[in-house]
Specification:
By secondary structure, the chain is of the alpha/beta class. The protein has two domains: 2-168, Rossmann fold (3-Layer(aba) Sandwich); 174-272. It is 56% helix and 10% strand. It has helices at 2-6, 21-33, 50-63, 67-75, 94-105, 126-137, 157-162, 174-179, 182-198, 204-211, 214-231, 236-254, 260-272, and strands at residues 40-45, 82-85, 114-118, 143-149, 164-168. The longest helix has 19 residues, at 236-254. The radius of gyration is 20 Å and the shape is elongated. It starts with a helix and ends with a helix.
Amino acid sequence: MVGEKLHGNEFTEKDSLINTSSTELRKLIGLYTTEQLAQVYLFHGDYEETAELLAAHVLANSTHLAEDFVAKHIKNRTFPNFHCVESENHEITVEKARELSTFLQDTPTLQGWRVVIIRNAEALNVSASNAILKNMEELPEKTTMILLAQTLFNIKSTILSRAQKVYFSYKSSPTEIFIGKDARAKEWITTIERVLKTKEIPPKEVVDAVANEAQVFAEVVKYYLYTQCMKDIRRARIFSHKYDEVAEFASLATGKFLSPAHFAFAIFSVLIK
């Protein structure tokens, strides 16, 4: 469960760098310059392209190549000292992890650092997570691995405990991230907060209105619960359990096992618990 994963992995100043993307990039470059760059990072939140920018700087400086040249090849996934693991069909399989193992075991093509980026780390399946964990524990010298995730939910707790977590605060509202219409998102968030406070299912017309866009509403609920976990560590377990349940119902609805009306009602039932 997510609650168990979050427990013992609180986000403190000791293990998290919290600031804007450009500030974070400068900090991370500073750590590389002073030879203090960690071997494993987990960037979560609104990290944008910070990982690839950091990779370009590290690889260019350690191989004595032009940074724009390296950045171009990173973008094209053709730089020999760079490896990117990406999901297919919303999943990262153990085959992808094995490809990474081969990359790490081979002698570097160029003298200098190597950088690994794992995008959408939430998509790691169980076998891939175990394989990636083994890679993390046996990383060669002058190698840094950066996992990217919008949230920490569904990421194996042993991976969380071994990574230096870097949180990038969202510059966009939940509306801009998930919906794109401020008025609707604000109205939904107000409804969510009211339900959490009153512990009552809203009127039928509200439930019916949500049912028309239940999947999008579920994303807003998940985003809201995630931000509450970040704001209130003492209640993180409660919010993370609610997140897990909403995500499970969303999966059922996607598979047509729940009608939109039942899905909407299920979401509100989770919130009032």
